[in-house]
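Sorry, explain these tokens?

***
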Amino acid sequence: MKIYTGTGDRGITSLFSGERVPKDNTRVDAYGDIDELNSILGALAANLSDEEALAEELHQIQSTLMQLSAWLATRPDSELIESLEEITDEQIASLEDGIDRLQKRLPVLKGFILPTGHLTASWAHVARTVCRRAERKVLPLLNNVHDGKAAVQYRKSIVYLNRLSDYLFVLARHCNHINGFSDKLWRK
């Protein structure tokens, strides 16, 4: 199979559910940001060579983001909706458990911090900001679908992305902490 087909040369692409849409379609824009986030998480995981369990946790998050992308790349009225793997409350709870686990090891935060420090912390901060943007891009999809399985999954996607951005914030602080960097407080 060739990686290039030329079918997108005129600014059109295919959704997972088969429909052809412009590449600046709201749906394509949303899953494009998820793809960007997923790639950044891959770079972050690759730089966590001494933290295998944490890198594996990130790989699990990447897999969940692929699930989420499949939902975004499928029109809510498509028959494929029934075959998609659902985002679960357990996946959201896993992020919350990760936040709690990492936060226990950190000093109490006493103000706003700058997104800086160790390379891994910086990657986590970049991922956090892309995650927030992706969350904003998913909202219009949720606002246009009011019932059915897709609506439930879009809502869970918003919750998952919101929790993931919190996880990435705490992960950035954790990466700084384990590498001997202090939080850099914002000074007005």
